[in-house]
Amino acid sequence: MAVLADRPGVPARPGWRAGLLDAGPLAAAGIAANGGSLLVTLVLARVLVAREYGALNQLIGVFFVVSTPGTAVLVGVVRRVTRWSGSPEEVARWGAQVHRRATWALVLFAAAVLAAGSPVASLLGRHEAFGFDAIAIAGAVWVLLCVNRGLLQARRGYRALSANLLLEGAARTAFMIALGVVGLGVGGVAAGVLLAELCTAAHARFVAHRAWRAEGDVRARRPSRAAIGDAVRSWSGGWRRVQGLGRDGVVRRDLAAAVAALAAIAVLQNIDVIVVGREAPRAAGGYAAVSVSSKALVFVAIVVAGYLLPEAAISWRDGRPAVRQLFVSFAVLAAPAALLLAVAAAVPRPFLATAFSDRYLSAAGAFFPLALAMVCLSVTVVVTMYLLGVGDRLFVVVLAGAAALATAAVSLANGAPGTTALADLGVQSVLVCAAVAELARVHRSRFSRPRPEPDGRGVVPAAVAPPGDEGGRPTAGTPSQSP
User: Fold this and answer.
1) Within 10 Å of residue 374's Cβ, how many Cβ atoms?
2) Number of DSSP helices (H) and strands (E) in the chain, helices first
3) How far apart, in Å, do the first and last CA atoms of the chain sit?
4) How far is Cα 40 from Cα 418, in angstroms, rounded to an integer?
5) With bands split at pLDDT 50, 70 and 90, how would you rate the model's confidence at 49?
6) pTM above 0.85, yes or no
């Protein structure tokens, strides 16, 4: 029976250089995409009036809420595919089936949004529902996009994934600025986000389907008209039953753990801004500028984790640790982290004045401690994705506790920017130590036991399963079933 690691399309990554060549482009694409987001922020801050800019930030918050399950879906897809046995064509068929199911769910969600858009927009203080409808549907499209990004990660298609990230950043920048500049207002900018996500999702479907097609298929090797038609048919086919979907207990638990972990990380990343905005509205603008500058590093960490997640899942499935890949991820993250700390320590006020304006200097003293806190959170994000990749779910409890502790700690600061940043730094420092301790515990529990000898094909028996992989290996052509 073939296994994923034996396939010529998923070669082993034996060296540091190969790891850096895999993770480096992802990090560069993430930095470029974040640079595009910063450009959009600066341009729209000058194009829109203050009230419209505040409404836009509110809608972007709606996008993040709706799209939260996307990364959890990505984790579930990677974990499912890396535990798969059979041919790449079977994975491609399964991916197409899941994509059809997700597309139908997107259509139903869009219909519900269009039906309920006006009342929800009124609750948000919006007089027209178009912007809310567009941004909510865009968030759902991003969840659909994550299905195919998960397929690319499981295939180790890091170059295609990097191209997809760059396309998303470029499309968002172009559509949001263009529709905002021509005078369509917040609704037009939200429509730009939707158009960008639709373009990115279509590209991801095509490259993911092509990546998993058989090596000998000519359509899988070049972007011909036949290949494009095949990818479109895989998306637009009728309703079909997805084999094993909804019956695999391991995958359901993976998804639940990922949703809980990412929700806790979202709280850890944003609770300080929410509390400062509530407790000290006059200081919120300056603190938001410091927060945007510091928290860009967390988004880079999430992108780098897109390399680490499948590498950890594949390595642990085969009975090997993924420590080298973990250190590669940290090495790639080190450069932007060092740059952030250098700017925050040496030139905080000139940087904020240049990037935002002199109106946003009130929280400059909070820049360095908040930057340190986000470096800690970035390390926690990378370790968390590693633990999710290997099937460890215990750390989710620690993340939930840290989110509650962070909420209490920053609330006690009463909105003072410097005190809030220091409180956040204290919580993030403790959390990163807990993350490293859990990482060490998981490695000890897995690799301190005697390892069985590999069989004649060099495959380690499934008895050495990662934490959480109770179901062992799946049977050929279908996902594994939990006991």
Assistant:
1) 29
2) 16, 0
3) 21
4) 28
5) low
6) no
